[in-house]
Amino acid sequence: MRFMLRSPSCDSPAQDCQMLNEPTLNKQHQSRQVLSNQVDIHPDLLSITKRHCDHPYQKPISNSQRIAYEKARMLWTQQGCPDTILDIGCGTGLSTRFLARCHPHVLVIGIDPSSHRLSKSIHDTPNVLFIRARAEEFWLQMAQDNWRPIGMTFFYPNPWPKKKHIKRRWHAHPIWPQIQRWQCPMLLRTNWEIYAREWHFVCEALSVPAKFSRFQPIQPITRFEAKYQASGHTLFQVSTDHEDILKLASTVL
User: Fold this and answer.
1) What is the DSSP string of 230-247?
2) The CATH number of the domain where 94 resides is what?
């Protein structure tokens, strides 16, 4: 099955639609632009990527992470092992539910390490599962079981903008080359251009076709997206397998 993020009509609960389509924010709620002492792609990014390729990530998996993974795997098995989309860093789950409505026959798993954020999620979509987990340990266990998602989304991850924090960004994580070998379509959205350009740079370094673009969302699908758009931020996305994945509710500039 091809991973095509389609744009459905706004059939989410009323409070979701009202929140996500809010045209303006009060001044005290205006979101500031990302501030960083880094002005371009990090000079060490290529060497970091090469090192991660030469030394596969092998972090021991904690018991709590095994339990979280088994919960997801059990549901996946009970549903007949359907195609799966992972929404990484899903927060309160608005984007997860959006994806599930786009793909009613796919299991959409929202993964977030914060129980506080997940406690605010709404469980009104049958093909959604929210899991409190660290994505890197979840991925390792999926790889061990040969469970491959058909798509992954990363909506406005923490950009870790300080130059010294480069290794905390997803595309500089030790597990990143292993995940890219899945040849799984991915979509990143961010309001920091350097983060998006670094993501695209690593894709190219790993010979993964990717497309970098600026965009304006027609229908914001996360609180961050709504806030950044209302604050006048330029938004960026990087997609792999872009002929399909750019079907998400957006207008590419």
Assistant:
1) HTT--EEEEEESHHHHTT
2) 3.40.50.150
Q: Are 199 and 227 in contact (CB under 8 A)?
A: no
Q: Which two tokens stand for residue 186?
A: 């991915």
Find tokens 């970091």 and name the residue: 48
Residue 208 belongs to domain spanning: 38-252
What pTM was computed for the model? Answer: 0.88
In a domain, 233, yes or no: yes
Pairing of strands 235-240, 128-132: unpaired
Q: Which residue has the tokens 């339990």?
A: 67
31 occurs within a structural domain = no
Number of domains forming the structure of the chain: 1
Place of tokens 């098995």: 77
**Paired tokens of 249:** 């509710």
For the stretch 209-224, pLDDT in tens is 999 999 999 889 999 9
pLDDT digits (tens, 9 = 90+) for 5-20: 554 444 444 345 444 5
Q: What token pair was written down for 43?
A: 């000079």
Q: Compute the distance between CA of residue 225 and CA of residue 220 in angstroms, rounded to an integer.
A: 6
Indicate the pairing of strand 84-88 with strand 151-155.
Answer: parallel
The whole-angstrom separation of Cα 160 and Cα 128 is 29
Only one residue has tokens 């998006």, namely 196
